Structure formats: structure tokens, C-alpha cells
Amino acid sequence: MSIRVGVIGKSGKISKEVKKKAYQVGKEIALKKGILLSGGRDGVMEAVSKGAKEHGGFTVGIMPGLTQEDANDYLDLALTTGLGFDIRSNVLIRSSDVVIMINGGNGTFNEVSSAYLLSKPVIVFEGTGGWADKIKDITQEGKYLDKRKNIELKYEDSAIEVVNLAFKCAPKKSNKFDQGKVI
């Protein structure tokens, strides 16, 4: 069963460096046969989707609106929710097995908080700016968002290592069929 990797990050204009790093993350997810989930729009979401799509990956955008007009061109499936940004983000996080944070503003920070509350593994791509480069400074012991210590935020600074760690941290999936029997 494929790992569902949620990639969260800044929408809108991003630097060429961040675009390149996000593209590389998408590529690595595709090469590992993961399913890429994102917010489906522009910025980090578009760059990561392009990287995955151009390397044979399957890309899903969880869209905030009821139409596909804001969907980027690299999605296999633009899932329109009509839920707005905040609730759409919750659907994205709940649908992901593991989350990768690239750059990001307030919406991305909200998604990390949701992942933390749901005990979803979060890998922070350091060196991409935004909250990805600030979050360690506000955490407890550099890895927890609060005293509950639900999960440790993990950090890497290269696309290959970010994706390798994401696949390592994702919960192990088992097929519901074991020798033809439902278990």
C-alpha cells in the first residue's frame, strides 16, 4: 500500500531556491512510489506537484473551494471540498500518513499544529525559509509543540533526506487481506 505524503508550505510567489527544493521533494516522493497530497494550489504546492508528476508520481490536491480554477496544472486529482482553507487543511492532514513542511506562513503553521495534535509524523525541511526555519526556536527541546510531547518534529536539510525520513517515520501499512482472509 502506498504511503500518502502530505506536503505543506507557502502559497503564492516563492523563491527559485524554494521552488527547486520543493520540486526535488516531489520527485523523491514519486521515485519512492508515494502518493503526494497537497493543498493543490500555487507556490510550494505547485512545485512539489510538478516534481512528482514529471517523475511518474500520483498527485492529489485537496482544494479549499468548489471549483478547480485554482488547481495547479500538475494534479492527477483536484479534490474540491468547498470547506475553505482552514477545514481543507484539516482534511489534508487527516488524509496524510506523514507530513513534510517546506517554508510556510500562518496556514502552514496551523497544519503543523493539526498534525501534532493528531500525532502525525512531521518532517521539517530546514533551509527553506518561513516557519520551516523558525519553528525549532519556539518548540520545547527543539522538537515538541507543547508539554504533551505528542510527536517529535524531525528536521532535515536536503530533499532526499527529508523524503527518506518521511518514509521511515510513516506508520507501517498492512494489507487488510492476509492470504485471502480479512483480518
UniProtKB/TrEMBL annotation:
Alphabetized Pfam families for the sequence: LDcluster4
Organism domain of life: Bacteria
GO CC terms, sorted: cytosol
Name listed for the protein in its UniProt record: TIGR00725 family protein
